[in-house]
Structures
1.
Amino acid sequence: MFDIGQNDLAGAFYSKTLDQVLASIPTILLEFETGIKRLYDEGARHFWIHNTGPLGCLPQNVAKFGTDPSKLDEQGCVSAHNQAAKTFNLQLHSLCSKLQGQYPDSNVTYVD
């Protein structure tokens, strides 16, 4: 089971701009893909991959980045952080589909 993205993305907002965080997503996913391939080569065949949640709703992110009401959504969460999470999850879902195609004898389960 893999729960991926939350720490990589949520922590990045403390030192990077939104554009930099978004630009880092392919690199994060490439590292993840490399790890999955290595596990597959070692004999793993069942992968449960859980995406990231709404990062803009994490209390520490709201406290740090939610001081400007114009940057919050209707739930009071940081809109840009949630958009980054959605972008990450879309790319992660695509990667899971790709991996399932590459390894037809495996089970790659993407969980939202």
2.
Amino acid sequence: MNNRDTRKKQVYDELATLVYESYHQGRLSSAEMLFLLEILETVVAGGRAGPLLPYLRRWVATKAGSREQHDISAIIKATVVNTDFGDAASVTNTAGIIRDLVEELEKLSDSAGEK
């Protein structure tokens, strides 16, 4: 095993442990835990979540203050949790949906910042 593979396994193990501990501390539901472990496995094994990751990063960076923003975030969360990461078409479809929702969330955040 080369250094890159060793580091990849170490990061995978640390993230999986963090997800598992977060579940047992009550910070994640079982569905959220399973989703995070599945996406972690998918990214490490085959990178199929690739088109979705930039939109997830933008979503996490967006602050949800209004009720509408919270509702959009809940839709994003439910959509992502129910994505079949073993199916490339499902991931691509989800990426498009999440992109549109994140753009709407960003517009709402921008307009809230102007007030």
3.
Amino acid sequence: TWRQTLAELDGKMRRLEPVNLAAIQEFEEQSKRKEYLDAQHADLSSALETLETAIRKIDR
């Protein structure tokens, strides 16, 4: 019946508690930090490649 289903769903929801709402904000902050660090990594990799190319040209 719908009451039994409702009771089951209510029980499942209560087992999920307590929800750490601060974790949501922390996840967003860490996601932004990861994006920043990924961009920094890409920039550094590109700079390293440019430097290695320049060194190879100088060594010729």
